[in-house]
Design goal:
By secondary structure, the chain is an alpha+beta fold. The protein is 32% helix and 13% strand. The chain contains 10 helices and 11 strands. Strand 3 and strand 4 form a beta hairpin.
């Protein structure tokens, strides 16, 4: 996404604001926090569980607590330096404007191209996951049992996939993270599930914790340097 810095005020194009609203067409919460609150707080809905993202600071939040969590306050608290927070949620400083490039708002499935193309490669500064997306597979034995029909091919060992947080979906070689709900396929025998998890889903708190800060940083640096094709990731 391109920004033009002309001042300390953020002007979003009408089309971008409309896109934000459209992403919440299937917002799962019937009560508060409502889609209107999320939109006001500057979030886009990711269409996964109740996960939302701010495209300005890459803050990702999910597992919202009804009647308790305030999206605006949470955004301000967790990402106080976000340009949206500073200019739209707090009293903006007078003078200058930041214009969001109209070209960045092209959509294909109701989500800005900058989100649909880059959700998997976000380098989030703050990640807030209150609970796993697939709690039934939080336990290692449960994940291991899901691989009963895993193809007997030249694929990574089941133990490695399970440790990396994945359970088998039962379809082809598609596995899903119990925590972030990210799915991968097209595995090679030499692929390291833990590294691939962190590579394609850098926002997953489980993957980041599993790798440790040093390895996680190296994985992201390597990914940026390689700029490889996204052959494994599954976008639902």
């Amino acid at each position: 996404m391109d920004f033009q810095f002309v001042s300390n005020t953020l002007l979003e194009t009408d089309s971008l604001q409309q896109v934000r609203r459209r992403t919440f067409s299937h917002w799962p919460h019937c009560t508060v926090p409502s889609s209107a609150q999320m939109i006001e707080a500057g979030f886009f809905y990711c269409n996964v569980c109740d996960r939302v993202i701010c495209i300005y600071c890459n803050l990702i939040c999910q597992q919202w607590t009804p009647y308790t969590d305030d999206p605006c306050e949470l955004h301000k608290t967790l990402s106080p330096n976000c340009i949206y927070v500073r200019t739209r949620l707090m009293h903006p400083i007078t003078s200058s404007i930041i214009i969001v490039n109209e070209d960045s708002t092209t959509t294909t499935t109701g989500i800005p191209s900058s989100i649909s193309n880059n959700l998997s490669s976000l380098q989030s500064n703050v990640i807030v996951f209150r609970a796993s997306c697939n709690r039934a597979y939080s336990a290692i034995p449960k994940r291991h049992a899901s691989f009963a029909t895993w193809p007997n091919e030249d694929l990574p060992l089941v133990d490695y996939l399970v440790r990396a947080g994945f359970f088998y979906t039962g379809t082809k070689t598609i596995v899903t993270c119990f925590y972030c709900n990210g799915s991968l396929q097209n595995w090679g025998s030499n692929d390291n599930p833990m590294i691939e998890h962190a590579r394609w889903f850098p926002y997953c708190a489980y993957a980041k914790q599993l790798c440790g800060n040093d390895l996680y940083r190296k994985i992201q640096e390597s990914k940026r340097a390689q700029q490889g094709t996204f052959s494994k990731i599954i976008i639902f």
